[in-house]
Each structure stands twice: as C-alpha cells, then as structure tokens.
Write a structure and sequence with these properties.
356 residues, alpha+beta, 6-stranded mixed beta sheet, 4-stranded mixed beta sheet, 28% helix, 23% strand
C-alpha cells in the first residue's frame, strides 16, 4: 500500500496540517514506521514501501499545484525555491517589506529590493532568529547555528540560511552518506558497518543509520564534508578516507517531515545525498562513536541488514541510501525485486527546484 504513495494527492480543500497521503498518514499515526511494524499492525516493509517513506511527496500533477500549498519564489519570480504551508504563509502576510503574498497565484515571493545574496541572507536569517525567539515553530528548537546554501537556477548561490529553518520553506538541502563494508568472500557474506543513533538525539533516536552521514553546510564541499563527518562521527582517519572512499553517485527524494524528524509534521524537505562507498578489511580499524551522534557500530551480514530494513528500524532516508547500496552491489536485482524499476527511479527523483 505504501508503495503506491506517489499515486495519492493532496486534497484541494481543507487545511494542510499533516501528511495527506493516506497510506503514509496511517504509517505515522504511531510516530514512525518502526512503531507501526512493531505493533504488528502491518507486515514487514517491502523495499518499495521503504522508498515511499522517504520519497513521500506526490509527483507533479495538476492536483498538487491546485492544493493549499504556496510556492515560495525568488525576488524576480524566476525560481520556485520551495513549497510552503498556509500556516507559514500566515506568518509572512504582515512582513510586507520583505515578502509579497499573492493568494490568487498561491505564491509568496521575496520582495524585489532584496537583490543581492547578502541582503537575502540577512533578511531570511533575521526572520528565522526572530521566530526562534518567539517560539513560532517547534522545528526551530533544533537550531543548529549552521548555514545551508540555497541555490538559484544555473547553480548560483542565492542566499545562505539556518539549517533547522530550511523545512519551513521547503528548501532543497544536501548531505553526504558513506557505507563502509567488507566484500563477500568464499566463506563470508557481504558485511556492512551499521551505526545506531544515540537515544538522546532529537531526530530519529536509536534508529539505524548509514556508517557516516552529515549535511553539507556552507561553504564546505562534498568531499570536505565527508572527511569532516568521518572524523567526527566514526573516528576514521582522514588519510583512510582520502585514499579509499569512492564516489558512487547520488540519491534524491522529496520527503514530508513527521514528528520523528523533530518539530512539526507536514513541512516539506526535498533532499540530495551524495553517496560514497568505503571498502574495508578485517584489519581496518573499526568505526567508533566520537561526537555522541552514534551509540554504537555493528558489523552485520547483508541478510541481517535486510531484516532490519524490513522491520522499519532504519531512519527513512538512510534506508533509501542502503537500498541504493544493495542495488549497486547486486544484492537487489530485477530477478529478485518485482518493483525494481520503480525503486531505482524513485531513488533519483527529478526535484522541481534549483539545485547546486
């Protein structure tokens, strides 16, 4: 049922206050998909259902664009930077010096006078800080003091913005994920290093993750971020990563946030993750918790990883990245996965916003 989430659409009427895709809304009644599985109200999750949990926003159709969502536009109206909820629009209506609200067009645009990166960055971050002080949105309780780049068409930097506030405006964000693994041998199966997230994390506590994962803040590059995150999260030496980590592509998806992500349900979060593989041996130093992001690391055989995926124990986007790994390494194939084409297509979604 979840695998057909893309076929559902938002209602034209009513207030958009939660996930309005029927199958996904059922999954999140209990807070996260893992709790639903563990409550025995649903069978094991299929690979396609796992993809649908991360790629949960409906695909572009007329019904989506006629919904209650508003487009958040650039100052020159040339780019749709994200989609925002009516609750956000209501908090922008009185800020006439900064934004132009058009209910007829269902859009909000940055005011024309904010015509430089610096002006836009200051205005947007001042607003986010004001909302944080006023406790306007719960998602801002996870304030990171880290800037994310927001792009204009042609990969031009448009402004930088507080990381925790990006879902309020539906901005595309970027990350880097790495999977460390030992290849299969004649006597042992493929094995993967899997961390369990700290139980004290505000987002997806105690769920399973990719070996190393982190957001790409401004002004860091992709590989610079990977090296930084590998040291901070897993204690990997930078030389090991420089010499052995291999870029293997990217995944992209359009996520509807839930309370498990921290903050309000319903904010939109399109994401791109750059993926890396790190082939290791029995003699390679094991990853270890360093900064408290991970509670522990496990070396699991691929069948154990598949079982944990099906049980809903992975963070949604890291489940998607893990499935991408299993596809690339020939574990998931057209012969053993009936939804192979839809799975591989939806892991590489064409996002309808400007990209880096």
């Amino acid at each position: 049922m979840l695998g057909h989430a893309a076929k559902f659409h938002f209602r034209a009427g009513g207030y958009f206050s939660c996930v309005l895709i029927f199958a996904l809304s059922m999954a999140w009644v209990f807070g996260d998909p893992a709790s639903l599985y563990k409550s025995r109200l649903m069978p094991k999750l299929s690979n396609l259902e796992l993809i649908a949990l991360a790629d949960s926003f409906p695909y572009p159709t007329a019904s989506v664009y006629k919904s209650r969502l508003y487009q958040f536009k650039s100052h020159d109206l040339k780019a749709t930077l994200g989609y925002i909820l009516p609750s956000v629009v209501d908090n922008l209506r009185d800020l006439k010096q900064s934004f132009v609200v058009s209910d007829a067009e269902q859009r909000v645009s940055i005011a024309p006078e904010f015509d430089t990166v610096e002006k836009r960055s200051k205005m947007m971050n001042d607003l986010a800080l004001k909302w944080r002080i006023e406790k306007k949105f719960k998602v801002l309780e996870g304030w990171r003091s880290e800037l994310y780049p927001i792009y204009y068409p042609s990969s031009e930097l448009y402004f930088t913005f507080e990381r925790s506030a990006c879902p309020i405006f539906g901005f595309v964000t970027y990350g880097v994920h790495m999977t460390a693994y030992i290849p299969a041998s004649d006597t042992r199966p493929l094995r993967i290093w899997v961390p369990r997230r700290s139980p004290t994390k505000s987002t997806y506590p105690s769920m399973l993750d990719n070996t190393v994962a982190g957001g790409i803040g401004y002004p860091y590059g992709v590989f610079d971020t990977l090296i930084k995150e590998c040291g901070e999260e897993a204690g990997y030496d930078s030389e090991l990563i420089k010499e052995n980590a291999k870029s293997v592509g990217n995944v992209s998806y359009y996520y509807i946030r839930t309370s498990s992500a921290g903050g309000e349900s319903g904010f939109l979060q399109p994401e791109v993750q750059y993926c890396y593989d790190l082939e290791v041996t029995e003699d390679t130093p094991a990853p270890k918790p360093v900064d408290g992001e991970a509670e522990d690391f496990y070396m699991w055989a691929v069948e154990k990883v598949k079982d944990e995926l099906a049980a809903g124990n992975y963070k949604p986007n890291t489940a998607l990245v893990t499935i991408d790994f299993l596809v690339r390494h020939g574990v998931i194939t057209p012969e053993n996965e009936p939804n192979y084409l839809e799975i591989t297509s939806r892991m590489h979604r064409n996002l309808e916003h400007p990209l880096r």
